[in-house]
Design goal:
It is a single chain. By secondary structure, this protein is an alpha/beta fold. It has a single domain, classed as 3-Layer(aba) Sandwich (Rossmann fold), CATH 3.40.50. Helix 1 crosses helix 2, helix 2 packs across helix 7 and helix 3 runs antiparallel to helix 4. The protein contains ten helices and eight strands. The chain has an eight-stranded mixed beta sheet with strand order 1-2-4-3-5-6-7-8, with helices on both faces.
Length: about 280
């Protein structure tokens, strides 16, 4: 895997898949970017540059672990842009990585050509998602065979009395089949310290980020999975409304990983947007 140097000297790695104009992809977690795969076949249309965030995947562990904080990671994305020799970049962020991509767009609006936020986290802009919202959305899956075991675990988590995250994994996929099970097993974060410190105190300044996004003239696509409890469509619609030029797509019958649930429809939406 190719590497480059972050502003503090930490060596960061990235994966290159496909050919064509590059798209910088920021994973969630923080976790090894391998779980993104080829984003359902998007690599057939664009070259995917998937960053392993510091301390994950093949990227080095930093000396200063406070640099795991989301706002501090903006400098890593900017260093990757410079390393790639891009005057502006097409940027794609998934899940928690969308918080980072959003903060990058707020801080460096003139360096973003297009921004795609996939099943996005919304903490960077202060959009809260209640347990009640998650439980109500979960009811759409009540006829699934795994629902009786998964819903009590979800209820306990959203009420602050449980932590069986594996039990609620089926809610994150449009189909809880062998492919989803394998993907879930391979997608666990590999550095829990990076996960814990990603949202540490000071990582987010929602008011400032919201204000700065008004200067982001780049076209934005916000894509939500219809069944996604992590990033419900209503919250993602609110996020889309913060940008001057944003479109919302709700991909039906999909969860938190829409490219796995329906790769063809996902690729059609993303490639059409990036090709604008």
């Amino acid at each position: 895997m190719p590497t480059f140097s972050a502003p503090d000297g930490t060596r960061l790695a990235y994966r290159v898949t496909g050919e064509g104009p590059p798209v910088v992809c920021v994973p969630g977690g923080p976790a090894d970017s391998a779980y993104l795969g080829d984003l359902g076949g998007l690599s057939e249309h664009r070259q995917l540059i998937a960053l392993d965030l510091r301390g994950t995947g093949r990227s080095a562990v930093p000396e200063d672990t406070s640099s795991y904080r989301c706002d501090r990671l903006v400098g890593d994305v900017e260093a990757l842009r410079v390393h790639l020799g891009l005057s502006r970049l097409d940027l794609l962020g998934h899940s928690a990585g969308a918080n980072l991509a959003t903060q990058y767009a707020a801080r460096c609006p003139d360096r973003v050509a297009k921004l795609a936020l996939i099943a996005p986290g919304t903490r960077a802009v202060g959009i809260e998602i209640t347990g009640e919202t998650r439980r109500a959305l979960a009811q759409a899956r009540r006829d699934e065979p795994w629902f009786p075991g998964a819903f009590p675990a979800l209820k306990a988590i959203t009420e602050g009395t449980g932590s069986d995250w594996d039990a609620i994994a089926p809610f994150l996929y449009g189909r809880w089949d062998d492919a989803a099970r394998a993907h879930h097993a391979a997608s666990a974060p590999d550095n829990m310290e990076a996960v814990a410190l990603f949202a540490a105190d000071g990582a987010f300044d929602p008011a400032a980020t919201r204000a700065a996004l008004g200067d982001c003239a780049a076209p934005v696509l916000v894509l939500a999975g219809e069944f996604d409890l992590n990033s419900p469509p209503r919250a993602t619609a609110e996020l889309a409304g913060l940008f001057p030029d944003a479109a919302l797509v709700v991909q039906r019958q999909t969860g938190h990983y829409p490219w796995l649930d329906d790769g063809e429809r996902f690729v059609d939406a993303i490639s059409a947007f990036l090709g604008r």
